[in-house]
Amino acid sequence: MKLTVDRADGRVPVTILRLEGDLDASNFETLIDEGRRLHAEGTTDLLLDLRDVPFMGSSGLVALHSIALLLNGGQADDVDAGWESLHAVGRSVEAGMQPHVKVLLTGDPGSPLQRVMDRTGMNRFIEVVTDEQQAIDSF
Amino acid sequence: LTQAEVNEEAAGRVEVPLQLDAARLADLASIRAYVESGARALGGDRDCVRDLVIAVNEAAANVMRHGYRGQPGPLEIDVARDGDSIVVRMRDDAPHFDPTTRPAPDLTIPLEHRPTGGFGIHLTRTCADSVTHSAGPERGNELTVVKRATSSTATTPPSSERTAVE
């Protein structure tokens, strides 16, 4: 998985983290570490560009969730906590949409990533967008 | 070829099994590629293939992370055609664990009343038409994941016709 960081200015400064390659249980912690680094550097609003991620498993959801928690003033999931971190995902879904992290996907409604976001309800916690400029302007 | 002819030609075929003596998380990409190519070769349409890949990826990751506790372990996977369905069987040598008995996380009920369970297993079950488990004599598990090959087949009349017949 390759990670690239870009910056853009909408109404607020937006960091764009672009991923290339599959996101699964073998590498999701790399994404969490990058989220931590960006947060420590002062990133407050983050657009995760996943258009070049062909596949994402539930571990990827934990990574997205951890980064969203960080940028909304919380703590990242404890990835060693196993199912408990996934239960935390459920709690956040109940809490509703958070404003500081959004996910950019292709417009394919049947894509593997869209399926995973839909079927776990994560799209009720992290907004899914398909247009980069509109996404930047929406923060 | 009509879809029915494709189904008939593919029925009963089995892809060469994928045998991993020391499966680890880095093998998940190979497992996904195997399931994708096998299911497609046996006549699975795009939705079927995508759902099977998600379902098997989660099941395999679960075996590696929890069954083998992060240590390398044997894993064998095969893909077969059974009538209108694609069938993926996954065998491991981990302690007995039946994911089909784990309650699904229900996001509509309060956390304190919610049963335990994870999104990985939830994804496996929601992406498949059926998931069944059988345990080995002392240890080891076989998980069978079944998905209809096509979302609509030539042998299934449109719903309006079915309603008229019923």
What structural class results from the helix and strand content of chain B?
alpha+beta
Strand adjacency order, main sheet of chain A: 1-2-3-4-5
Assembly state: heterodimer
Order of helices and strands of chain A: EEHEHHEHEH
Q: Give the biggest beta sheet of chain B.
A: 5 strands, antiparallel
The largest contact between protein chains, plus residue counts on each side, is: A-B, 26 and 31 residues
Low-confidence stretches of chain B: 109-117, 153-166
> Helical proportion of chain A?
25-40%
Quick one: biggest sheet of chain A? 5 strands, mixed
Q: Structural class of the helices, strands and pairings of chain A?
A: alpha/beta
> Span between N and C termini of chain B?
30 Å
Major β-sheet strand ordering of chain B: 1-2-3-5-4
Q: Can you give the mean pLDDT of chain A?
A: 88
Shape, principal axes of CA atoms of chain A:
globular
C-alpha-based Rg of chain A, rounded: 13 Å
Low-confidence stretches of chain A: none
Strand content of chain B: 15-25%
Q: What string gives the helices and strands of chain B in order?
A: HEHHEEHEEH
Number of extended strands of chain A: 5
Distinct helical segment count of chain B = 5
Question: What is the number of beta strands of chain B?
Answer: 5
